C-alpha cells in the first residue's frame, strides 16, 4: 500500500522554537506539497517541490521554509514558531502529471504553539 | 486566477435521501477537478476526479460528479445517503501548467440524520 508518512501526529511547541515537520513518501513521486488546514478556510498551500532541491512558494509561505534533499523526503520548517501557526499540517505527493494521476495525502500533524 | 467556491459550508440530509454538494470553479484553462473526503481525525481520501474525459465521473462509495463547463460547476451527488457518509468534503482544482498544485475549496460538512 502506497504511503505518505508524517513523522508526528500531534506536536506541542513553544513560541519562538524552531520546528521541523517531516514527510516521507514511498511512491517515487516527483511532486511534494505542504498544506495547512484551518476551519472554514479549507487547505492552503504553503510550499511545494517538483524535484529534489527545488521549491516553490505557495499561497501562504510567510514564516515557513522547506527542504528537499532527497526525492522521498520533504521537510517543513517553522523558523520561529508563533501562536498563529497553530494548525493541522498536511503533506501530499504526486507524480509530475498530478492532475491525471491524483495525489496522496498523509494523515496530518496537528501542531499547537503555546 | 484560479479559485474554487463550495456554495454550502454545511449540508444536512436524512439517511436514504439524495446528497448534493455544490462546487463552482474559476479557471482560465480546462482544469483537473477532484472531490476529496475527510472523515473525523482521518486523512484526505480521493472520491473522484475529472481530467477532461467523460463529463460524468463516477467515484467510490456511490458518489458521482458532473463537469459542466458552461456553468463552471462540478457538483457532487449521491442517490442515497448513508450514515457513514458524514464527513467533510472538499472540491479541488488543479490548474494546468502550475506544477501540479491543488487549490482547495473551503469545505462542506455533511451531516446524515438517522
Topology, element by element:
The complex is a heterodimer of chains A (114) and B (114).
Chain A: E1 4-6, E2 10-13, E3 19-25, E4 31-38, E5 42-49, E6 56-57, E7 64-70, E8 73-78, E9 87-94, H1 98-101, E10 104-105, E11 109-113
Parallel strand pairs in A: 2-11
Antiparallel strand pairs in A: 1-3, 3-8, 4-5, 4-9, 5-6, 7-8, 9-10, 9-11
Chain B: E1 3-6, E2 10-14, E3 19-21, E4 23-26, E5 32-38, E6 44-50, E7 56-58, E8 64-68, E9 73-78, E10 87-94, E11 103-104, E12 108-113
Concise overview:
The complex is a heterodimer of chains A (114) and B (114). Chain A is mainly beta and 114 residues long.
> What characteristic shape of chain B results from the CA principal axes?
globular
Low-confidence stretches of chain B: none
Indicate the structural class of chain A.
mainly beta
Please give the alpha-carbon distance between the first and last residues of chain A.
36 Å
| Shape call of chain A | globular
Q: Tell me about the largest β-sheet of chain B.
A: 6 strands, mixed
Instruction: Let me know the average pLDDT of chain B.
Output: 90
What's the main sheet of chain A like? 7 strands, mixed
Please state roughly what percent of the residues of chain A sit in beta strands, choosing from under 5%, 5-15%, 15-25%, 25-35%, 35-45% or over 45%.
over 45%
Secondary structure class of chain B reads mainly beta
The poorly predicted ranges of chain A are none
Write down the secondary-structure element order of chain B: EEEEEEEEEEEE
Pair with the biggest interface: A-B, 27 and 23 residues
Radius of gyration of chain B: 14 Å
Which percent range describes the beta-strand content of chain B?
over 45%
Number of strands of chain A: 11
- Oligomerization status of the protein chains: heterodimer
**H-E order of chain A:** EEEEEEEEEHEE
